[in-house]
Amino acid sequence: MEGKAPELELTGKQKLWALAGVVPFLISLCLLGFALSSGKVLVLAIAWPALQVFGYVGAINRAKGDFSHPLWISQVSIHWIALALITILIIAPPA
User: Fold this and answer.
1) Residue 89 banded pLDDT, cuts 50, 70, 90
2) Average pLDDT of the residues in 54-59
3) pLDDT tens-digit readout, 8-56
4) Cβ neighbours of residue 4 closer than 8 Å, sequence gap 6 or more
5) CA dihedral sign, ordered 54, 49, 87, 18
6) CB-based contacts of 44: which residues, under 8 Å, 6+ apart?
7) What's the CA angle centered on 13, arms 9 and 15, to 5 degrees?
8) Beta-carbon neighbour count of residue 67 at 10 Å?
9) Domain-wise residue ranges, the chain
10) Distance separating alpha carbons of residues 7 and 20, to the nearest angstrom
């Protein structure tokens, strides 16, 4: 059957890490919406999703599509750390 994409079988671990990569990206899009409406943290809100796209695409290309590859896992972990730091910055802004 030409033109039909092959079925992609993901393991449970791969599904978990793929989901773990989606969550910070969706939250960054929410932050972008907030920043566009309020004008606060605009540079961060624009740059963070862009960095995620470039990082995720590069990591998954080098990992050859394996979402449980250590390179993908480290990329996802970096963005979870960034999410934690942004949350701390919003909850308790510096004096």
Assistant:
1) confident
2) 93
3) 788 889 999 999 999 999 999 999 998 899 888 889 889 999 999 999 9
4) none
5) negative
6) 31, 35, 86
7) 55
8) 21
9) 25-91
10) 22
pTM of the model: 0.80
Q: How many Cα atoms sit within 13 Å of 29 on the Cβ side?
A: 5
Residue 79, Cβ density class (10 Å: 0-12 exposed, 13-18 middle, ≥19 buried): buried
C-alpha distances out from residue 58 to 7, 53, 71, 91, Å = 22, 8, 9, 32
* pLDDT value for 9: 86
77 token code pair? 């972990």
Q: Extract the runs of DSSP E, i.e. beta strands, from the chain.
A: none
Give the CA distances from residue 82 to residues 1, 45, 48, in Å, rounded to whole numbers and listed in that order.
44, 12, 9
Amino acid making up residue 20: A
